[in-house]
Amino acid sequence: MSSMSPMSQSDAKKHLHQSYHQQENNIQKNVLITGGSRGIGSALVTRFANAGYTVWFTYCKGKKSAQQLVDSFPNRNVQAFELDLGDWMSLQNLLQALPEPVDILINNAALGTGTVKELIQEPHLQDQALLQVNAVGTLWLTQEILPVMRERKYGKIIFISSVGGGITQFPGFRLADSMSKAAIAFLSKQLAAELSHEPIDIFTICPGATKTPMLEASLLNGLSANDTQALYNSLPGCRLIEPDEIAEIALFVCTEKAKVLRGAVIDASLGLGVNPGTLTSFMKGIN
Questions:
Q1: Distance between CA atoms of 59 and 78, rounded to whole angstroms?
Q2: What percent of the chain has pLDDT over 90?
Q3: What is the DSSP string of 52-82?
Q4: Contacts of residue 82, Cβ cutoff 8 Å, sequence gap at least 6
Q5: For the chain, how are helix, strand and coil distributed in percent, rounded to 5?
Q6: What gap in Å lies between CA 184 and CA 50, rounded to an integer?
Q7: CA 248 to CA 229: how far, in whole Å?
Q8: N or C: which end of the chain has fewer CB within 10 A?
Q9: Residues 6+ apart with CB under 8 A from 46
Q10: What is the CA 199 to chain-centroid distance, rounded?
């Protein structure tokens, strides 16, 4: 009568990895992208839809632009859902409306220093909204979706933070905005630690100065042509980042090749994160 030797630790890990990989290949990839109607969000929707994923994205105020984005993919499974990320009942309505479980959650929706002023007049309420939407709302949504990922033994969560708060600090920038982005980066690292032995991957991407409506509202719209060129010259790389460059990183971390980056907080700022003084000096020069 023959006996089987116990599986070695290395064999067990290999078996577990193969099991996860096989399960991942068998799962239909449903991606939920918050704040998907413009800027980086729109680039994320486009990238993932063109890669064959089922894409659900949220919008808050821009219903027309959201519908236009959906209509641009007549042969893809792309749907838009209304969501006020800072409102608990709105979040619950979204979860009820989603047709299937979420395999990949991309927490992208956020208010910025400029965009919050378009919605709220009082500075103290602006600060409250920045933290409520960017940090608390993101926490709420992640906590609601994570248990199903754990039950299904599969999931990826990507947080879009910012170089300001997520990587470094910029003196003179709005405190509540940077605090909210720092909170997102901490949340991602805490979850990555808690889930380090489960088949759920956590990543954070921290863009630098990116060509988006948010940057236009917070900075670019107030600059002259000469100041705009001076801004470009002050930035590492001497240019703004394109939203599609950030979307490409997000798509990559959803691949098997990115497994080694689990838990990473990625500085995607063209070098601004390691040399923040370039932007600080420019801001002092125009104020």
A1: 13
A2: 70
A3: T-EEEEEESS-HHHHHHHHHT-TTS-EEEEE
A4: 58, 59, 60, 63, 90, 94
A5: 55, 15, 30
A6: 28
A7: 26
A8: N
A9: 244, 247
A10: 20
How many whole angstroms separate alpha carbon 251 and alpha carbon 239?
A: 23
Amino acid at 224: S
Encode pLDDT of 218-232 as tens digits: 777 777 888 888 888
Q: Residue 107 and residue 188: Cα distance in Å, rounded?
A: 11
Cα–Cα distance measured from residue 30 to residue 28, given in angstroms and rounded to the nearest whole number: 6
Q: Which of 89, 69, 87 is nearest to 79 (CA)?
A: 69
| 22-286: CATH number | 3.40.50.720
**3-state class (DSSP) for residue 259:** helix
Tokens of 104: 């990949």
Polymer length in residues for the chain: 287
Region 182-198 average pLDDT: 97
AA identity, residue 7? M
Q: Domain residues of the chain, as ranges?
A: 22-286
* DSSP-derived secondary structure letter, 78: E
- The amino acid present at 264, given as its one-letter code, is A
Round to whole Å and give the CA distance between 138 and 192.
15
